[in-house]
Amino acid sequence: MDIFVARQPIFNKNLAVIAYELLYRDSDKNYFNTSIASNIATAILLMNSYFHFGIDHLVGQSTAFINFDARLIHSDIPQLLSTKNVVIEILEDVKPEPHTLEKLERLRRDGYTIAIDDFVLDYPYHEIINLSQIIKVDFLNNSRDDIQKICYKYRKQGKLLLAEKVETHEDFEWAKKLGFDYFQGYFFARPHMIKSKDLTGSSSQFLRLFEALQESEPDFKKITRIIEIDVFLTYKLLRIVNSSFSLGTQIASVHQALSILGINAFSKWLSLASLQTLSKSHATELVKTAMVRSKFLEHMAFHATSLEGHEDELALMGILSVIDVLLQEPMKEVVKNLPLTPDVKKTFLGEENLYLYPYQLCLAYEQGDFSNLEAYADMIEYDLHQLSLDYIDAVKWAEGLFSYMNDLDSEFVTK
C-alpha cells in the first residue's frame, strides 16, 4: 500500500526556504480529506514522517511545522519530537483550558517553538498568544486593515509573524513592507506530494504489546521479545530511534534500541501506530522467512565459536533481511536511514566483516546452494553437522509462532 505526505515550503524575506509545513494526505490526490479527524490526521502524519520517510529526509536541515489539536497536546506526543527541527503548530480551535495551558507551558519551558495557525484579528485566546513565538496570519480570512492591525500589535510584543495563504506577488511585497518575517502560500509553491510504501504489521503483535505495556510493572525483556520477532515493529523502532535522537548511537539489538527510547516513549509511539489500519501484510511468506532467518542465525551464533555473544545482532539481521523487498527499496537506501552497527550494515551490503559468513551460510542453505557451506562454516568455527538441526528448529519455531499470531489475529477480527 502506498502512503503519502505533502509538504509546503516556508520562506524568509530573501525567499530562502527555512521550514516546511508537513500535511496529511491519504491518497495521491493532493488535498486534505475533511472526513478525517484532525488528531488522527496528525497522528498518521507523524507515523508516516518518522517511521516511513524519516523526518530528516522530509525537511533536511530545515524545520517541520506540524499541526496539533488539544487531544494530541494532552497525549504528550509533542514531547517525543525534537525541539531542534519541529514547530508545534496549534490549531485555531484549541481552547485555553487549564490542562491545555499546563501542557503548552511545559512545551515552552522544554524549548519547543509554538505557533498559532490560521490567526485572525478576533482570535480570543490571549493565554495561548502569550505562550506562542510565531503567529501565522491568514491572508485569505483577514482584511488588509485587519492584517495591518495584527502586524502592528504583535510585532510590538516581539512575536514572529508568518504570512500564510499568500497567493499573489502583490500580497508578498505588501507583507514584506509590513514587516512579516516568514511567508507561505500558493504564490510560492503548492504542497508537494511525497510517496512511499507502507509496511503493515500483525494486529496480534500490537495487542500483545499493548497488554505488556499496560502491566503495572512492564517486563522489559518480554516487550523486547515481542518486538524482535516482527519485521514491522523492529524496523519502526529503529526509525523512531534514528529520528528522535542525534546521539550517533549504533544499534546492535532491539533491546538496545528500546533501552535508548524508553518504555514510556515507545508506548506513545505505539499508540500512534495503532491508529493506522491494523491489517496483515500481503507478503506473509516474506515475514515468515524473516522469522526463520532470525532464529536460524541466533542458533548459529550460539553454536559458532567465533560468534559467541553476538546472538542479538544476528537475530536482528535475520528480521531485517527482507526489509528491502517489503519496502521495495534498495537495501543500501534502507540501511542508510537506520542506526545499525557498521558490521550489520556491511553485511547487508555484501562487504567483508564478522557477520557476512553466517549470513551467507544462512542464505546458501535456504536456497539449496551447498557448494560453499563448508567454507562458510569454517570461517565462523561452526560445526556443519549442526546446520540442519538449527534450521529445522528455526522453521518449527517460526511456523508455531506464525500459527499462534494468525489465531490471535482471527480473534481480533471477530471481536
UniProtKB/TrEMBL annotation:
InterPro entries the UniProt entry points to: dGMP_Pdiesterase_EAL/HD-GYP (IPR014408), EAL_dom (IPR001633), EAL_sf (IPR035919), HDOD (IPR013976), RNase_Y/CdgJ (IPR052340)
Pfam families tied to this protein: EAL, HDOD
Ranges for domain EAL: 1-205
Record domain HDOD: where: 199-386
Alphabetized PANTHER family for the sequence: CYCLIC DI-GMP PHOSPHODIESTERASE CDGJ (PTHR33525:SF4), PTHR33525
Name of the protein in question: Diguanylate phosphodiesterase
Protein species of origin: Petrocella atlantisensis
